[in-house]
């Protein structure tokens, strides 16, 4: 503080002593201009690369402050004239995407990666490739490939006993799982309640997937948009993963005319394509509760707990409806036959006696 206070009285004396020199305002003693170093190491200064530029001392800095310094000396900033060239990488010699030819191979099946032929492999590489699978440590891989060996042995014994007991015949649920396709899809959490999402689930249950999407598209409910997006996703998953709704091209005994069936609700329906997708079941799952704030008057804040729910749908093909209708029709026919009255057969009367036989 004392040094800074003593600077003011001597300032006028220094200015009056040097006549004809303009006044230079105060500035910091240590000030470095931002410079950018070049990657190639060249600079525009005339200083030889071997000579190091001399650093200004503290005395010269104070002298330049009081006397103004030389006007010709100006700091030079080295700037990069052009951007450095871009370096592009290349594929390795052992990359599967590398090709022998420089240009792309234009073939109908697409561009295929080239690899070393068996004749080009050295004996050492061929031997290493043949012994790669045998050199693996089975004990290290066992915890992943066979984590519970005792449970696996029990399951295999159970399956063998089942095959022997049923003489290799499949049960009806197993036949249904092998012959019919289905897809279960669960949505993410919607910011709505079960009371609001339940009517939409009941509305789309039992309908064709395209008809249900049309219903949700023109619905006035706020959650209908989320339901519509979930139905689109569920349909795509069913087509890609389960192969549903791909038409009758792969079936030899496909019906040529529509099949009229009666649904569980008593509605009559004509099925033209047995592979079309419909929503067999749709239900709502209760999810977590969020946290929200309701700002009231006089600084009062109420804590709100908005609910979250999700929608699950089971998609099946129309051939399942045909099979279920046939099963119901056959069961009803058996029940009617069991309740019919049948007359006793006519037989010849024999061994008649006028006295009782006891």
From TrEMBL:
Fetch the CDD domains from UniProt. Answer: Ribosomal_L22 (cd00336)
Query: Which UniProt keywords are present, listed alphabetically?
Result: Ribonucleoprotein, Ribosomal protein
Question: Which residue ranges are recorded for the region named Disordered?
Answer: 30-116
> Which Gene3D superfamilies does UniProt cross-reference here?
Ribosomal protein L22/L17
GO cellular component terms given for this protein: large ribosomal subunit
Q: Please give the Pfam families that the UniProt record associates with this protein.
A: Ribosomal_L22
According to its UniProt entry, one GO biological process term is: translation
Instruction: Spell out the molecular function terms from Gene Ontology.
Output: structural constituent of ribosome
Which family does the record claim for this protein? Belongs to the universal ribosomal protein uL22 family.
In its UniProt entry, what is this protein called? Ribosomal protein L22
């Amino acid at each position: 503080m004392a040094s800074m206070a003593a600077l003011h009285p001597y300032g006028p004396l220094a200015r009056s002593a040097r006549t004809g020199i303009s006044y230079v305002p105060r500035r910091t003693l240590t000030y470095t201009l931002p410079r950018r170093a070049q990657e190639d190491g060249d600079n525009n200064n005339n200083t030889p690369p071997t000579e190091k530029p001399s650093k200004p001392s503290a005395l010269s800095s104070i002298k330049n402050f009081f006397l103004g310094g030389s006007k010709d000396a100006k700091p030079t900033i080295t700037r990069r004239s052009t951007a450095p060239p871009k370096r592009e990488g290349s594929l390795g010699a052992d990359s599967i995407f590398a090709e022998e030819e420089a240009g792309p191979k234009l073939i109908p099946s697409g561009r295929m990666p080239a690899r070393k032929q068996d004749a080009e492999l050295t004996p050492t590489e061929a031997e290493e490739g043949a012994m790669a699978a045998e050199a693996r440590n089975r004990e290290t891989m066992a915890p992943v490939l066979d984590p519970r060996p005792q449970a696996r042995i029990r399951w295999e014994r159970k399956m063998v006993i089942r095959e022997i007991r049923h003489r290799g015949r499949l049960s009806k649920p197993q036949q249904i799982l092998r012959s019919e396709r289905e897809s279960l899809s669960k949505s993410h959490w919607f910011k709505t309640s079960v009371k609001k999402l339940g009517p939409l689930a009941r509305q789309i249950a039992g309908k064709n997937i395209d008809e249900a999407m049309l219903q949700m598209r023109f619905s006035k409910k706020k959650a209908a948009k989320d339901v519509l997006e979930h139905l689109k996703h569920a349909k795509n998953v069913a087509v890609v993963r389960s192969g549903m709704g791909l038409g009758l091209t792969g079936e030899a005994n496909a019906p040529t005319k529509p099949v009229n069936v009666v649904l569980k609700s008593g509605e009559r329906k004509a099925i033209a394509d047995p592979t079309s997708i419909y929503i067999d079941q749709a239900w709502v799952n209760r999810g977590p509760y969020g946290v929200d704030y309701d700002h009231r008057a006089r600084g009062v804040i109420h804590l709100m707990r908005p609910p979250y729910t999700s929608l699950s749908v089971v998609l099946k093909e129309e051939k399942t409806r045909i099979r279920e209708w046939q099963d119901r029709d056959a069961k009803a026919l058996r029940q009617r036959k069991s309740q019919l009255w049948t007359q006793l057969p006519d037989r010849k009367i024999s061994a008649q006696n006028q006295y009782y036989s006891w």
